[in-house]
Design brief:
By secondary structure, this protein is of the alpha/beta class. It is built from seven helices and ten strands. It has a domain of 157 residues: Rossmann fold, CATH 3.40.50. A hairpin with a 2-residue loop joins strand 9 and strand 10. Helix 4 crosses helix 5. The chain is globular. Pfam families: ABC_tran. Its EC number is 3.6.3.-. It comes from Clostridium vincentii.
């Protein structure tokens, strides 16, 4: 499903050259639950951004179902992200002036879905994450764990093939974090491919496969035995 071929990412900061990723290659199959782990500055978030179409590699190719997204133009990339990808971020990235329902409906507006269907699909997504009673609540009226559930509902409302989660439990207490991790496991069991970036080895160990990154390179790639 996902094939990364020899990608490198180099940033220019004034006269200084920063190598975020160096000659990284990997394959991720459909339906996997993968954790990408590494310390701050290791390149893990850069890798996620390249696979997710939020950035382009300096060198190399990113193939999704055989299509090289690193060669797509902006409009094509936006279409790819909207149709294939769901993003969950550490900071939730919700609109504070809008209700949970309105936040979840947002990606459907860009997809050209009718207002009636947008509402139906958003309500279903909120039900899937256990927030049916909070559809009219705004983010400042909810706990951190509930806000992250809203962001998960927003990520899955378009029924994407891949969910990317960037430090999804970083702003949560341990109980809320465990609830979110269970939600990802449930999503994966229902057929979603889940790729999670984290610096937390405990969270990473809950994934089926753990890829470790250090200094812009993969240092280990372990698939766990079925429990």
């Amino acid at each position: 499903m996902i094939e990364v071929k020899g990608i490198s990412k180099v940033y220019r900061m004034g006269k200084e050259k920063v190598v975020a990723l160096q000659d990284v290659s990997l394959k991720i199959g459909k339906g996997e639950f993968v954790a990408i782990i590494g310390p701050s500055g290791s390149g893990k978030s850069t890798l996620m951004h390249l696979i997710g179409g939020l950035d382009s590699p300096t060198v190399g190719n990113v193939l999704i179902e055989g299509q090289d997204i690193s060669k797509l133009k902006d409009k094509q990339l936006s279409k790819y992200r909207n149709e294939k990808i769901g993003f969950v971020f550490q900071a939730f990235n919700l609109e504070n002036t809008q209700t949970a329902l309105e936040n979840v409906m947002m990606p459907l507006i860009f997809a050209g879905i009718s207002k009636k269907e947008r509402k139906q699909r958003a309500l279903k997504a909120l039900e899937q994450v256990g927030l049916s009673e909070f559809v009219k609540h705004k983010p400042n009226e909810m706990s951190g764990g509930q806000r992250q559930r809203v962001s998960v509902a927003r990520a899955i409302v378009n029924n994407p093939e891949i969910i990317f989660a960037d430090e999804p439990t970083g702003n949560l207490d341990s109980k809320s974090g465990e609830n979110i991790m269970q939600l990802f496991r449930d999503m994966n069991a229902n057929g979603f491919t889940v790729i999670m970036v984290t610096h937390n080895p405990v969270e990473a160990n809950k994934a089926r496969r753990v890829i470790k990154i250090m200094d812009g390179q993969i240092t280990s790639d372990i698939i766990k035995e079925e429990e």
